[in-house]
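Protein: Type III PLP-dependent enzyme
Species: Streptomyces malaysiensis
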Amino acid sequence: MITSTVRTLATELTGDDLPAYVYDLPALRAHARAVRDALPPGLELYYAAKANPAPPVLRTLAPHVTGYEVASGGEAEHVRAAVPGAPLAFGGPGKTEGELRRALTLGVERFHVESEQELRLLAGAAEDAGIDAVDVLLRVNVPLASDELGGAALAMGGGPSPFGLDPEAVQRCLPLLSGAGSRGPLRLRGIHAHLASGLDAPAQLTVAAAIADWARKLSERHGLDDLTEVNVGGGMGVDYAHPDRRFDWAAYGKGMADLALRHPGRTLRIEPGRALTVYCGWYVTEVLDIKHSGGEAFAVLRGGTHHIRTPATKQHDQPFQVLPMDTTATWTRPWARPAVREEPVTLVGQLCTPKDVLARRVQVPELRAGDRVAFAMAGAYAWNISHHDFLMHPRPGFHYLDT
Ligand SMILES: *Cc1c(COP(=O)(O)O)cnc(C)c1O
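Structure follows.
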């Protein structure tokens, strides 16, 4: 599963060049194209930039996505600069008045409004700026039957939630929106929902149908003819235990095509993050030491969860491949090379905390000091969610392969 370009670089880098993040941009391009091709042509695909906002990643995705979902003023500025001209949808809780003003100045195309107060702040900011038309999607905690979410890893809707608006609150927002009574600058263009993460394709389709049905009922009940957009969110599942079992985009695309037929005149939109970029990134490092304690083997790696916090936050084993380093030049010390063979080994980093574990008791044929370890699925929620400064180890190198 590791491509030869990533493997070659991983073995050519010296110990002092490690750890390194290696991004396989051709693999990202191929994956994004395959995802886009599996979706019906009318469905809009936004990329949730918070998953990985590195400019080469944003730019590689550009030909394959309709736009980008940004979740802060910082992301709005950053994505605007990295991919000028690409449509932006500004979501996220706790938008400040300053962020809203700046987003208006940047010409952000869609605002995903999360509360009644935010709607009022946005209206005020637009009036102050002399902007007479701002396109709004209300983020709604669309009610779902409890069995609809199945095995969701991170349920964000369907219960008490700091995100979005409950259906009752939506009623209170309508008078502030044009098309629903107000002559103010805010236009209600649609409904946005992001209810859960980690769903497989059938569960995603169930959730999408519930959101689209809810939007239709709202628009019929209140005669909202301009409510033409339904953003059903992201959260397409990935499987860290089985990197080769990917989200079934073909089944999802087919289901979304059927959903679009049932909702003529509405634009459906999705905004995945993780499932688009997770596979393109590798965190490559080397084994510094191997030791045994209490009868168990530990491999101490250069780097750790301050660079890739994903396994600590999600409490999983980060998938990895061992790249054996067999040249005699690798081991020049006058003592025996520390090694484990045919036994479970726990891969830890350099931090002084027992939480700095990347993978626990994983069976490996052989692992020796100096061998390289390439952690897979490090392209999303990896470097950018990590606490880099803890212990002041050097930062990793960053390599964006594009050949
Ligand atoms: C984080 C987030 C996404 C992307 O979620 P993934 O699990 O990365 O697909 C999309 N929309 C909203 C509102 C989010 O908060």
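Remarks: The chain has a mean pLDDT of 94.
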